[in-house]
Each structure stands twice: as structure tokens, then as C-alpha cells.
Amino acid sequence: MSARPSTRPPDVPPTPDRDGTPVAHPAGALLTGPLARAHLRPGIEVLWRGTGELQLGSDPRSAVRVDGLAPAETRWLGAAGSRPLAATARRHGVTPDRALELLEVLHRAGAVVDPPPVADDPEITAPGGGGGDLAALSSVDADGWGSRVLRRRAARTVAVLGLGRTGAGIAAGLASAGVGRLVLGDARPVQATDVGATGHRLRDVGVARQDAVAETVAQLSPATHVRTSSAERLRQADVVVLVEHRAADTARAGRLVGADVAHLSVVLHEAGVTVGPFVDPGRTPCLRCVDLHRRDDDPRWPTMAVQLRQGTSGAEESATASVGAGLATAQVLARLDGLPVRTAGASLEVLWPDAVPRIRQWQPHASCGCHCVP
């Protein structure tokens, strides 16, 4: 089954083809909205499948396949680029009525979007105006304009505490994704073992980690505002990322719960990293819940945890630090963008050498008292 805009019955929603490719069906009534100024969704690819048949997009979750097109219609859609579609229909020999019919179909399928929004929100801070992220963001944004997401990110504040290889990678990833304000906390000097693809440079050795990362962010994304950590700035952050070694500091995390500050735990181990849980205070399991579950599994865990927390900062293996930084960045961005956070009530465990994340679910612990116990 495929879409034939001129022959399908009205008001049939897009449905998947047998091979899983989404298919557009025509709308019955005219849509409200300025279709005369509508665009193809930013970043969408127009792919030729055969005579009279196009596919818009390559992501199986959002791609739209349309057939029954005349040669002029195929040329029109294929040459659209970033211009309003209606403006170029006539020059390709597509009548206004037919153009409007096709625009309605593609609008309902999410391949065509209304004109870009007026930029009343903060300016985009991501490098290059966020062009590297725009196509992906546009595919999941309800309005089809990833620029809306980038402007919302520009108004957000994220704190990153712990700036070795993994934490430095998280800070850089958030800045490049357009987060407007970063709060950095780690005054320890950069060690030679902190140097790496996601971490610091050789010239940073001996410099305070937070200062080295601030310089990296300034070079990467000059519009991002960077401040050093303070108790007040942590309370005002939208998300705090806690990057630690061996075992999470549940006391510090508990203070964030008390201040109603969302936070993500990232813990580096001997040969791996655990990302999560993401704690939404009062609504998802906290780090003390996790600690209590571990005590239930191993009565000696509290004794070992104390020793682990007292240990010095450890090395961060290159591959798992890179994967951990990417996963943590994605979790934070999901929260900022209003999308489901996969690590809310769960952890992603990344072990060397394969570095393939494995998910582990967590439940509220009845003895915790973090207010999310049913």
C-alpha cells in the first residue's frame, strides 16, 4: 500500500506500509494554517524511488512515501530545498489546486511544516546556528522546526560537577547542542590521564579542570555563558550532572533532592561507567533508593561504599568515557526538550571492552522517604 493523494478517501491518517515505511494519505478538509508559505521539514531528504514515486526522509520513524505523482510534481518536490513550496509550484507546471492538495497530504504526514516561528525566545547559542542538530531535532519537534528546540535550550542552565574525561565531554556536548548556560564545578588540576578525545588537551595539564573546560567551551561555542559552581547556582540549574568515581555521593545528591533540583548520576568504575538514574525529585527513585537496593542485595555494601567514596579520582578509559559522555548528554537534552528520559528510574551500564549500554531498572525503596514511594 502506498499513498496516492488524488485517489485516497478523505481523513485517513498516515499508516505504515508492509515494509514499515510510513505512508501519507490525503486530508479531506482544508487545513488551517499558512500552507501557502509552508516548507519541507528542515533537513528532510527527498529520495526518488521510481517513476512517480518519492520518499521524503530516510528515518523509518518519520519517512513518508508518496506515489501517483506526475513528472512535474516529482520535479517540484525534488527541487524544493528550503523555499516555500507554493512559490515554486507554477514554475514546475503544478496547478495551485493540485499543489494545495499535495501540501495538505504532506502536512498531515509531518513532511511539510508551517513557516518558521518568529524568534521571540533567546537567540540560538549552538555553533553554526545549530545547523548540525537541526535535521534531527526537526524530525521529533511537534511543529517540525528544530529551531524552536534550540531556542528553548539557549534559555536553560545545566551544571556539570566532575570534569575529567567524561565530565568535560558532557560539558562540551551540551554547549555544542545549544544549552545556553553551563555551571562547572571541579577545581582539581588536569592530569595527563585526563587528556583524551572527550577530555582535556596536553596544554591543560596543571590547570584547574573547570577553567580548562570553560576555555574549551568558549572556543567551541562562544555564545554559551559559563560560570563556576556555587550552592545558589546549583539550586537554580535546570539539571545538575554529578560525575563521580566508584560510588555516588548520596549525601550530596540528597541535598539536590531537598532543593527539588533534577540531577543525573554518572559513576565511573574500574572498567566501565554507569549513567543514571536521572532523578526527578519526588517523582522518580533517587540515588539513596539505589543505595538501599544494593544494601538489600549485599548487606556489606554500605561498608564498601564508604571506602569507595573516600578513594581518589580514578582514570577514565577512553571508549567508555566517550560513550558515557554521549549517553549522559542525550539524557540531559531529553529532559530539557520535554522528551521522555530513558534513565528516569533506570541506569545505563557501559562495560569495557564492548561499551554496549545495558539497562537496569530501579524502583523506589520503601525505606528511603524520597516521596515517590507509592
Automatic annotation (TrEMBL):
Source organism of this protein record: Luteimicrobium subarcticum
Protein origin, superkingdom: Bacteria
Pfam families: ThiF
Domain THIF-type NAD/FAD binding fold as annotated: residue spans: 149-339
Gene Ontology terms for molecular function: ubiquitin-like modifier activating enzyme activity
Lineage start: Bacteria, Bacillati, Actinomycetota, Actinomycetes, Micrococcales
Protein name: ThiF family protein
Segments for region (Disordered): 1-24, 113-132
